[in-house]
Write a structure and sequence with these properties.
- The strands form two sheets. A four-stranded antiparallel beta sheet has the order 3-1-4-5, with helices on one face. Strands 2-6 form a two-stranded antiparallel ribbon.
- α2 runs antiparallel to α3.
- It is elongated and about 100 Å long.
- It has one domain.
- The chain is α+β, with helices and mostly antiparallel strands.
- The longest helix has about 45 residues.
Length: about 200
Amino acid sequence: MMRLRQLAGDSSGATLVEFALIAPALLTLLLGLFEMGYNYYMQSLLQGSIQQAARDSTIEGAYVKQTEIDTAVTNTVHQIVPDATITFQRRAYSSFSKVNQPEDFTDANNDGDCNDGEPFEDANGNGIWDADRGRTGLGGARDAVLYQVTVSYPRTFGVSKLIGMSDTFTTTATTVLRNQPYDKQAVELSVGNCP
């Protein structure tokens, strides 16, 4: 009986038990912080890389080097995340104010939609009204080019499942630069009719 009283008052193993209770939460927190830091580092590296690539894309004849420019970005990303999936998108606009803007149209019936044969300005020359007036590619002299790179890769530290997040991390870096004035800007506008 005396032995039981001594055992009840003994606290020599309490630290170990307390650590065992707190360790999973502490470990999850630390791994989450590492994951967040890794992702921020990757995003910062990607943004710097596309800034350089975008500057290289603004010179005359850059369309010949487009694969080389994209390869430089890919190599930079793959140094940090070898199994990353990378997609590139370039859209050219006549000015910075036109980036991600819809093609203009005359809303004759005031419904806010391009329909019923209403005339529209076909800024990208594809024959249909678009919610984004940009032309795919590097554009021409003096065009503003939106350069966007999306990178997806499996999360590194695996704590995402514990907190209900996706196993894949996706980040997008974007920059807009104007092509150099190596020629007169080609502006081709035509008028079409909405369906």
